Amino acid sequence: MKRSLLLVLALAAASAHLDASTPSVPRDCADLQREIAGKIEANGVRSYSLQIVRADQATSGTIVGHCDGGSRKIAYRRIELPAAALSQARPADGGGE
């Protein structure tokens, strides 16, 4: 699953780079963030953050896109949940009435 997540992030970053390199159409950050989130969630990842920051601002995480004509970037960070939180978040099997 980790390999497929990296592939999704690489594809999202490549897509964002191609979109950002088109000078006539600057990519809107909110639109790009929603697109990247959809790809991440389609891969089964539920606990993550996507943060839009200025391009010159230092940030933790992996840069997965650039937007607003290259003036901003989108950083991805997976959030590791404790095992107790994961068990509470999943419904119990066979919970029929």
Biggest sheet record: 3 strands, antiparallel
Write down the overall mean pLDDT.
78
Distance between the termini: 34 Å
| Category from helices, strands and their pairing | alpha+beta
The strands making up the biggest β-sheet line up spatially as 1-3-2
What is the helix tally?
A: 3
Explain what the structure shows.
Helix content is 41%, strand content 21%. It is α+β, with helices and mostly antiparallel strands and 97 residues long. A hairpin with a 4-residue loop joins strand 2 (62-67) and strand 3 (72-78). The longest helix has 19 residues, at 2-20. The radius of gyration is 16 Å and the shape is globular. It starts with a helix and ends in an 8-residue tail after the last helix.
Strand and helix map with partners:
Elements: H1 2-20, H2 29-42, E1 48-54, E2 62-67, E3 72-78, H3 83-89
Antiparallel strand pairs: 1-3, 2-3
Summarize the structure.
The protein has 97 residues and is an alpha+beta fold.
Core attributes:
97 residues, alpha+beta, three-stranded antiparallel β-sheet
